[in-house]
Amino acid sequence: MAAAAAACRLLRLAPRRLRKPRHSLFPTPLALSSAWRRYCAAAPPVAAAATPTGDAVGEFRRRIRVAEVKGGEDQGAAWVGKELTVRGWVRTCRAQRTVTFVEVNDGSCLSNMQCVLTPETEGYDQIDSINTGASVLVDGVVASSQGGKQKVELKVSKIIVIGESDPTSFPIQKKRASREFLRTVAHLRPRTNTFGAVARVRNALAYATHKFFQDSGFIWVSSPIITASDCEGAGEQFYVTTLLSNSAEGGCLVNSIPSKDGRVDWSQDFFCKPAFLTVSGQLNGETYASALSDIYTFGPTFRAENSNTSRHLAEFWMIEPELAFADLNDDMACASAYLQYVVKYILENCKEDMVFFDTWVEKGIIDRLNNVAEKNFVQMSYSDAIKLLIGSNKKFEFPVKWGLDLQSEHERYITEVAFGGSPVIIRDYPKEIKAFYMRQNDDGKTVAAMDLLVPRVGELIGGSQREERLDYLEGRLDESNLNKDSYWWYLDLRRYGSVPHAGFGLGFERLVQFATGIDNIRDAIPFPRVPGSAEF
Ligand code: 4AD
Ligand code: MG
């Protein structure tokens, strides 16, 4: 409380310095101090000209986590005899006649720390509270373990139960729960082996993504989440509006929504025009690539497509690099190198979790990923892919014909059967089935697009060389019935210093699926958003 009051006092000194604002962008001192008073009502009046003093902020110290103890080559042998404090959640508690074994997991790795308690242990009287799910702090000394499962364990001198967990209602019990059930307790599922491992591998993939692009000279750009343009032109956008926030009892009244000629009057909305959650950061990414050369975005994107499949989310994360002075070949090379880099990274840095996936989720995934990391990717044209599918004589549910988009079953046939599990890039798609911004090929029928397909997931990456010629781009906007005026700034890039450029988008959750073997995309993101479900 004292620290909070001191902080508020500190804040309240600031208006004094702003008493003579240099320009009108600064709120008046009066406005500032009255706003602050609202949040700091309990603060005493400011003593004139007092120099505030405060308590020093403590030093940040990195805590030792179980992964650091057990994760090395020696599995913790070098720690024997050393003192250690473990903070984590109880996975199991097994009481034997003279000793009790408590498995504690702190989330840093798959392995638990086996903590050995005896009646002499301080806190032993709390033994009835040491249930699955409880949080504990355990002090002890690392010792060689007699059991075959681990090299070391913790001989506990003191245990404190920090937060109890009622064993009769805690939903995650030792027996294996189905992934469907775990989706209904998404707030607790990170405490399972599978979801802990997915979270760590997802984190490693994100880190490796930044590392790959940063090391390759790309600059990370934050593209906006709210946008007025539809990048993919597919009309799969969520509206962002305050027109519905008129908080009448029981919700917004339909007839209170402003309208004009029977339609919603967007001019009265927050942005004075329709606005949406972005489906892709690409168009904004292109503006920065047209100044900084090579950039990438990495952020959330949203699609209101009503696809209840194992590969679609309404909210997903996308990585979108954009390369200036580059064509489709450069784009494909970048996509392949990036994918191989992140795959190698997790094979080298997430060994324990990858062995877990190999054993429990998808047998052989390590070999499969090793192949991906090592072998060159192949590429073929869309026209050749159609010939291949027709020539396969396989019965597909969806028709195969030049001009129609490839469906998931076709993509999976190409990678899983025709190319025996290797990623394949399909390029030069018919222009009618691709977005307006893709560069037209000289044949007048196809565009310089590429999709990278991988086994089990299908399309992991979608990209293209962009149309850098103003007249062609305007023609494509017209053909696609898109309003040229609202793309004025995008067209400007073609008016001022246009360059050949190319980029792609990788769906991050599909990458997590590919890298972990997890079947359903809803298990590759902490809190999935899908049609009919936005719980948690
Ligand atoms: O192929 P898409 O629609 O391409 C774009 O959005 C381009 N603007 C990207 C670019 O060139 N900068 O989407 C790119 C990737 C897909 O290949 C897929 O991996 C993923 O985003 N994706 C989805 N992932 C999960 N749920 C969905 N509903 C997805 N839609 C696309
Ligand atoms: Mg696509």
From TrEMBL:
It catalyses: tRNA(Asn) + L-asparagine + ATP = L-asparaginyl-tRNA(Asn) + AMP + diphosphate + H(+). Keywords: Aminoacyl-tRNA synthetase, ATP-binding, Ligase, Nucleotide-binding, Protein biosynthesis. Gene3D superfamilies: Bira Bifunctional Protein, Domain 2, Nucleic acid-binding proteins. GO terms for molecular function: asparagine-tRNA ligase activity; ATP binding; nucleic acid binding. GO terms for biological process: asparaginyl-tRNA aminoacylation. Its EC number is 6.1.1.22. The keyword Lipid biosynthesis does not apply. It is an enzyme of class 6 (ligase). GO terms for cellular component: mitochondrion. The keyword Aminoacyl-tRNA synthetase applies. Residues 200-526 form the Aminoacyl-transfer RNA synthetases class-II family profile domain. Pfam families: tRNA-synt_2, tRNA_anti-codon. NCBIfam families: asnS, PRK03932.1. HAMAP family: Asn_tRNA_synth. Belongs to the class-II aminoacyl-tRNA synthetase family. This is asparagine--tRNA ligase. It comes from Triticum urartu. The gene is LOC125536904.
